[in-house]
Amino acid sequence: MHLNDRIKIVAMSQETDEAGFPLEAQEFATCFCRYMKKSGSEILKSDAVVSQEKVLFTVRYSPKTKELLLDPLATKKYAVIFNGSEYDIKNISDFNGMKKYVDLVCELRV
User: Fold this and answer.
1) How far apart are CA 31 and CA 36, in angstroms?
2) pLDDT confidence of residue 46
3) Residue 70 phi, psi (nearest 5)
4) Hey, what's the torsion of the CAs at 56, 6, 25, 65, to 10 degrees?
5) Nearest-angstrom CA–CA distance, 98 and 89
6) What is the rounded CA–CA span in Å between residue 94 and residue 108?
7) What is the value of pTM for the model shown?
8) How big, in percent rounded to 5, are the helix, strand and coil portions of the chain?
9) Of 3, 47, 58, 88, which is least surrounded by CB within 10 A?
10) What is the dihedral of CA 55, 58, 64, 67, to 10 degrees?
11) CA dihedral in degrees (61, 65, 67, 73; nearest 10)?
């Protein structure tokens, strides 16, 4: 498997600054990945058409990705940054249960 692209996995901050704005996300891990576009669709939100893009990032199994796999709230705590775009993590799974790769199913943040 060729892991040619680079992603950043960031920990989303639950804290806010004095003005009530969320604090900037902290980098959790940077790793090489295989990027695959899974699907694209358009939905209607608040009377506006919004496109949804689902993608799959496959990364090497490591202590950091193992931490993601073991955390049941990881999909709410972490996000992926790829080519300047931010993706919400929807699912994290061990690729074929082999503890060699980890799949991150993500959706482009709108």
Assistant:
1) 16
2) 56
3) -85, -15
4) 60
5) 21
6) 21
7) 0.83
8) 15, 60, 25
9) 47
10) 70
11) -130
